[in-house]
Amino acid sequence: MDDFTKVQNMVATLFEAPLESVTLQSSKDDFVLWDSLNHLNLIMEIESEFNVSIGIEEIAEIRTIQGIMDLLKRHRNK
């Protein structure tokens, strides 16, 4: 399973959204359940699934699915 598919599944499950509604262009405004608590739940799932540690500044910057993918790419290139 590729990274986008993993993230897509996480977001769809966590925010109770149809899988096909989660695209690279999706933002937190597209999901009713993407609140501050679920934002942290998403961060913890990403850290666990991809074995990364996301900094405080990065947590605040995540607002889109593309942003998550960019973050993962940056962490892989460290």
Please give a structural write-up.
The chain has 78 residues and is an all-alpha fold. It has one domain: Non-ribosomal Peptide Synthetase Peptidyl Carrier Protein, Chain A (Orthogonal Bundle). The protein has helices at residues 3-14, 36-50, 56-61, 65-76. Helix 1 (3-14) runs antiparallel to helix 2. The longest helix has 15 residues, at 36-50. It starts with a helix and ends with a helix. It comes from Brevibacillus porteri. This is Carrier domain-containing protein. Residues 1-76 form the Carrier domain.
SSE layout and pairings?
Elements: H1 3-14, H2 36-50, H3 56-61, H4 65-76
Low-confidence stretches: none
In whole angstroms, the N-to-C terminal distance is 22 Å
CATH class: Mainly Alpha
Please give the domain count: 1
Find the CATH topology. Answer: Non-ribosomal Peptide Synthetase Peptidyl Carrier Protein, Chain A
Overall pLDDT metric: 95
Q: What's the shape?
A: globular
What is the share of helical residues?
A: 55-70%
CATH superfamily: ACP-like
Protein name: Carrier domain-containing protein
Pfam family, one: PP-binding
